[in-house]
Amino acid sequence: MELDFIRKLKKQSKSKIVFLVIDGLGGLPSKQNGLTELESAKIPNLDSLASKGICGLQQPVGSGITPGSGPGHLSLFGYDPIKYQVGRGVLSALGINFSLHQEDVAARGNFCTVDEKGLVIDRRAGRISTTENEKLCDLLREIKLPGIDIFIEPLKEHRFLLVLRGKNLSADISDTDPQDIDVKPFQARPTLYQSKKTSDYIKKFIEESYEILQVHHPANMILLRGFSQKPKWPSFEENFGLKSAAIASYPMYRGISKLLGMTIIETGNTIDNEFKKLEENWNEFDFFYIHIKGSDSAGEDGDFNRKINVIEEVDKYIPKLLDLNPNVIIITGDHSTPALLKHHSWHPVPVLLWSEYCRGDKLDHFGERDCVKGGLGPRFPAIDLMPLALAHAKRLDKFGA
To answer: What angle do CA 282, 54, 337 make, to 5 degrees?
Structure first.
């Protein structure tokens, strides 16, 4: 639904909305038990909420399209991810409060492992510690290129931020991350003629990075993706009239929240920390976005049981959420990350909507195959969730006479 249309219908209310985003929530059946991670999990509180609310499967971008985390979140927040596009570089920069200039080019980097043939054998370098990441970033800061300034900042685990600052730079550059193993990293290539100068800088930076890192196994190479420059978009509050807060520990998700004008609430790395921050700040905001990362990491690692454990831990905090008396709760993911595939997938994502005004669909379990039968439908656009949340929160006026 177009943001301009929703903006004209929004109205004020004291109601509160919570979006609980369990990253990579959707899965595929295990060969062991024939059930997905969500279907395998013991989640009595989520099941109870599903029985009182309404469920379905949402599609972040389109049929057959595997979304990145950025597009997945933008669609949840009501922004058409095809119209509103931004790379992970900008989101990572904003997520760590880097002072990004409008003309800067930012990219998200991975330290990775390559073998003696130059083939990527681990895109995440064994998920090295953030402490080790910081040491490697110090080494990369030694690289100097004439005509530009280079900024290197550690993120979490194997991830880092690269920012180029100079005149006439362009972000229209292809990723070097193949997002696969047993292949060589891609060459940085300009996708528009005016990007050649910037892509040449990137190529030189990668060459010098390898010279430095080749003796630092397992983090002996880098992969770059999400080259981008900071866009100018209407804020979340302008669109929906909601004073909003983001509770997320990872820079990427803090970045996308900051880009939309949400207030970033500092939190620790645990689910318990996040729900404590929700309770502490409950009276200050109308809309809360809570991000759970562990489910996605487990899926990417192919760890079926660990993903179940994360989902079950989230379930234990549902009573604490209900004790705050929110008016609308939406629980879903930004995409599916089946442990069977070890990466994001195109499969629709389970979603649960609860409010006082739900008709209900009498499901007794929150799972993929149950959600197919839910009242929200087996495949509806994720960008419809914000209008639905606003309607259930009594924050939308009637349309027409």
So the answer is: 80
Return the H-helix or E-strand segment holding 292: strand 287-292
Helix (H, G, I), strand (E, B) or coil at 278: helix
Q: Give kind and range of the element (H or E) at residue 331.
A: strand 328-332
pLDDT, tens only, 115-166: 999 999 999 999 999 999 999 999 999 999 999 999 999 998 999 999 999 9
Dump pLDDT digits (tens) for 25-77. Answer: 999 999 889 999 999 999 999 999 999 999 999 999 999 999 999 999 999 99
Instruction: For 80, list phi and psi in degrees, rounded to 5.
Output: -60, 115
Domains and CATH numbers, the chain: 3-86+232-392 (3.40.720.10), 98-228 (3.30.70)
Taking alpha carbons only, the member of 79, 70, 72, 64 closest to residue 25 is 72
Res. 4 pLDDT band, cuts 50 70 90: very high
> Rounded to the nearest 5 degrees, what angle is found at the Cα of 44, between the Cα atoms of 42 and 46?
100
